[in-house]
Amino acid sequence: MNMIRLTTQSSSSLVLLYAFLVLSISLITSSSEYEDDYNFLQCLSQHSDPSILTYTSKDSNFSSVLFSTIQSLRFYSPAIRKPRVIVTPLKESHVQASVICSKRHGFQIRVRSGGHDYEGLSYVSDVPFVVVDLSNLRSINIDVENSTAWVQSGAITGELYYRIAEKSRNLGFPSVFCPTVGIGGSFQGGGYGNMLRKYGLAADNVIDARIVDAKGRVLDKESMGEDLFWAIRGGGMSFGIVVSWKIRLVYVPTNVTVFTINKNLDQGATKLVHRWQEVASELPHELFVRVSISVVNSTTKEGEKTILASFPSLYLGNTENLLAIMNERFPELGLERNDCAEMSWIQSQLYINGFPVNGSLDILLSRNQVKRYAKIKSDYVKEPIPETGLEGLWKKILEEKSVARMNFSPNGGRMAEISECEIPFPHREGNLYSIQYVVGWEGAGSEAAEPHIRWMRELHECMTPYVSKSPREAYLNYRDIDVGQSINGTATYLEGMVWGSKYFKSNYERLVQVKSQVDPENFFRNEQSIPAVAY
């Protein structure tokens, strides 16, 4: 009995000792982190002016600032490491100070403009890090006379469209569909929307930029050199922090024409999508006909689901010309005059986002975005998928019990005319269209996410016979960590090629060379960044 009592006492003592050690280590770690944060903030104050805005976990609004532009709720939970400091620059010098001080005090840096990174790499890391949130750097200056504009990286796409329309009804810009996407991230990944067949990508229309490099210098196109300027237009955020961009604005007619045709399986959706594959990339450059695949309730079989194929479209011209083109090139869709609506280009941006076209344009200025649990993937298609393949695809989509969607965006036109090495974005001639896969669900945590992510991976695997091969191409702005990743951005050349070849094809080699020249210490890095190697 005494021995048992002694053992119990000894166990209690060990538990107390363990608790004391854990508490001591926690206090030491907390003290060390506080000192690191303090030294970083002191460094910022020495290298910038008092107007710089910073937030640490001790600030009451830290969480709200961090959460403000996070779109994917998968990457906002107590278990995920938070930044030690959030810096929200108001001027270029604040960005310079953030780079200098992060480097000096051993913090990794993550850069966020709109918060749409589908894998959270702009605001999540496994090591101590700071977030440079560019949302306050959002000025836009339109030069109508020269059809150019300077736009800062923290502006959102809707703001850019709005400011252009303020100045001219006949100018626009070929950027992304969603108005809350940040300029910085979209331009550095390519940035495509419904004018890509006429004018290419957003990145194709960048003519100058200002970047803070790994040494904290501000460089423009001339001082950064041809190679770095090439790399930042579609090569991702591996080279520095681009603060602002000079872009070439494009002509849009006074009125454009939009339409959306919806067809379910009973209405011949399979044959229409198959035919669309054959004609969409060959239509006139001014015509963009997209396909969106979703699951809806059947109108003929109560309690059952069916596939809906929607054809949301933009034509840079009038209804009369559009009908003539469609009747000749794609009569199977059955487009009629009363399906069409003419409006200004800026109103068409309201239309494609489901806003009232006669409503206030101020909705484009809103940074409020839908926050969701979701997983995204992408593909490129070079040959039409046969009807049997489409039928198999529909069957797989109907298995998913949550929200599943696919978007098919046609290539061709100007996209096929630009060389695949003109900028790092390589998905040009030879691709009929791109695919965006989307699955969303309710509920936090890995247990809720697992069946939906598993289904998405199965769907992606089912598509293997029908999409690009060697490499299986993917779009950087539809970031997908499944295509490959490194540990904390420390990939070798060969490891980086796993995802680099999919995103950039043969341009990966040149991106590595540029990275190795401008950031040899690999300061700007993430799990899918371009590696720096010694040549």
UniProtKB/TrEMBL annotation:
An MF annotation (GO) of this entry: oxidoreductase activity
Residue stretches making up the FAD-binding PCMH-type domain: 79-252
Pfam families in alphabetical order: BBE, FAD_binding_4
Keyword Magnesium annotated: no
Secretion signal, residue range per the UniProt entry: 1-32
Cell inner membrane in keyword set: no
Gene3D superfamilies per UniProt: 3.30.465.10, 3.40.462.20, Uridine Diphospho-n-acetylenolpyruvylglucosamine Reductase, domain 2 (3.30.43.10)
Needed cofactors: FAD
Alphabetic keyword roster: Disulfide bond, FAD, Flavoprotein, Glycoprotein, Signal
Family: Belongs to the oxygen-dependent FAD-linked oxidoreductase family.
Protein name: FAD-binding PCMH-type domain-containing protein
The organism of origin for this protein: Papaver atlanticum
